[in-house]
Amino acid sequence: MYKKLYLNLARNSLRYIIKTYQIKELNIPYYLCETVRQSLVKEDCKPLFYHIDDDFMPKKIFDKNEFVLYPNYFGICDKNVEILSKKYPNIIIDNAHSFYSEPKGFACFNSARKFLAVYNGSILCIKKLDNSNFYPTEEYKEFINTDEEKEKREVIFENLEPSFISDKLKNEIENINNLKERKEKFLKFYEKYEGKNLLKIDIENSYSPFCYPLLTENETFADKLAEELIAKGYKIYRYWKNLPKTYPEYKLYRRLIPIPVCPL
Question: Left, alpha or beta for 121 (phi > 0: left; psi -120 to 50: alpha)?
Answer without folding.
Answer: left
